[in-house]
Amino acid sequence: MKKRSYGVKTIVVVALVSAFVAFAISAGLDITSESMAQDFWKEGTTRQRVESPKTSSAIEGLPSFAGLAKELRPSVVNISTTQVVKNRRGRRPQMPRGFKSPFDEFFSDDFFKPFNGQERQRERHNLGSGFIINKEGYIITNNHVVENATEIIVTLFKDKKKEYKAEIIGRDSNLDIALIKIEAGGDLPVAAFGDSDKIEIGQWVMAIGNPFGLGGTVTVGILSQKGRVIGAGPYDNFLQTDASINPGNSGGPLFNLDGEVVGVNTAIIAGGQGIGFAIPINMVKEIALQLKDKGKVTRGWIGVTIQEITPEIARSFDLKDSAGALVSSTMPGDPAEEAGIKAGDIITEFGGKAIKTSRDLPMAVAAVRPGKKTKVVVLRDGRKKTLFIKVGTKVNKDDDIASVPEKTGSSAAKLGVVVTKITPQFAERFALKDQGGVLVTSVDEGSIAARGGVQRGDIIKEVNRKDTESVKAFNAELGKALKKDVLLLLIKRGRTVLYLAIDISKDN
Q1: What is the pLDDT of residues 332-379, one digit of tens each?
Q2: Could you say which of 10, 50, 176, 339 has the lowest number of CB atoms within 10 Å?
């Protein structure tokens, strides 16, 4: 095959054409050295331009966190604790299910009887993190870091050789927050609080802590999600981040790029990677003040039973969406009733905070100091109503309970239930505070009622927002309600009062 040769002119022409094409593409896509600088959102609403990093300490196109880490690390402390753990001796060895030990005859209960009940003590050492919030030496950490500790040792970042004994000022197991204090004899670097409500998913965050005893460890990532419920307690509302968090990071701060604490690192998913959780700092601020002043936390209480607004409930209330917390009952004499809140109200705002789901309300109420007068916005019969409630203190109260007998009529048969009147004898026997409503004595399997979640022992107090003070009233209202698409029942079940919305459009 003859080899093709290229002359000098051809090479020059190709070079010129290539240069022209490259220039045209660059001009069309506006790719210049200046536009290579990356934009990113800092905390707040002002968009700021960050020039391309010119040092070898940062990857091209990303900010360097060196300055921020240098500034913030001194406010973060390492915590080590000593706990006394009690173990019982002489307990019979447990084999895995389905297995039998060949030495069973030597490990009978009689063999270990002389030792059963005896205890031995051993020391266990734990590691954690914390951050200084006051120049006098107040430090926030997790409750589980210092709980049951016989000794708490704090080490500062700048002086790792010097140890300070800390005392517990107060603990809150519900939120897993503790306030401890050291006497360092001088001004200490303080971490500033941020606003965890304002930080947005996708923004940069930085975690600093003591993972596996490696104090001063800095990791960065983004805020992955907000409002996570992980079953850790009654006030689950975690920030999720992919900034690396490990054992020992507990109690350490999660910072935004303004150098403000937006969360307290608390939990990880075992075996997971890039899945860490932090308590929003806005939930911690008020708690920390109470711990400092009183050593304990007193949470707000208004005395309502609430539930989530399902699509069926939204339809039955003629709502445009499912936002808010539906009040299914108010407790006599409690702040909600005194403020004028009623069953069927939908709380959409509490203390200036929007209530988007029923889970938002307990946290909003708990954050208010008892005795404070607070604004509440409710939706009642399609109209907004503003009320003012004086938040009280939670106390244990027994709700009404229910029990069995007698028979009833035709509309109930279509629903698939048998109901009876609550007589004074029943009310006295089961300590019922009122005799309103009818008692469900049986529920037919596969019926409309069973499908909707009605259970034996429920007290039906309303049918489609109408009171059912007697069996006759119940049948009358039920007859009307069964002609519609959605049946709404207000029931009392043990310690709970709730609405059940049942779609009956296919049954008509």
Answers
A1: 778 999 999 998 999 999 999 899 988 888 888 887 878 889 999 999
A2: 10
Beta bridge partners of 298: none
For the purposes of burial, counting CB atoms within 10 Å of the CB of 202, is it exposed (0-12), middle (13-18) or buried (19 or more)? exposed
pLDDT confidence bin for 412, thresholds 50/70/90: confident
Give residue for tokens 């009404």: 400
Residue 82: pLDDT over 80: yes
DSSP string, 271-332: T-SS-EEEEEHHHHHHHHHHHHHHSS---EE--EEEE---HHHHHHTT-SS--SEEEEEE-T
Q: What is the pLDDT of residues 152-196, one digit of tens each?
A: 999 998 877 788 999 999 999 888 999 999 998 878 999 999 999
Residue 246 lies in a domain: yes
Query: How many other C-beta atoms are found inside a 10 Å radius of the C-beta of residue 117?
Result: 10
Q: Are residues 271 and 310 in the same domain?
A: no
For residues 436 and 343, give the distance between their C-alpha atoms in angstroms, rounded to a whole number.
14
Pair 206, 221 in one domain = yes
Query: Which amino acid is residue 117, in one-letter code?
Result: G
pLDDT tens by residue, 129-141: 999 999 999 999 9
Same domain, 144 and 217: no
**Which of 36, 91, 117, 502 has its CA nearest to residue 315?**
502
Q: Which of 250, 316, 358, 411 is catalytic?
A: 250
Q: For the domain that residue 477 is a member of, what is the CATH number?
A: 2.30.42.10
Residue 164 structural domain: 74-94+107-181
125 carries an active-site annotation: no
Q: Which two tokens stand for residue 116?
A: 């059963």
Residue 43 lies in a domain: no
CA dihedral 466, 470, 472, 478 (to 10 degrees): 30
Contact present, 481 and 413 (Cβ < 8 Å):
no
Write down the catalytic residue from 75, 144, 196, 224.
Answer: 144
Which among 181, 214, 237 is the end of a domain? 181
d(CA 486, CA 476): 16
The reply to whether 488 falls in a domain is yes
CATH number at residue 114: 2.40.10.10
The residue from 80, 129, 172, 176 that is catalytic is 176
Q: Give the residue from 294, 327, 356 where a domain finishes.
A: 294
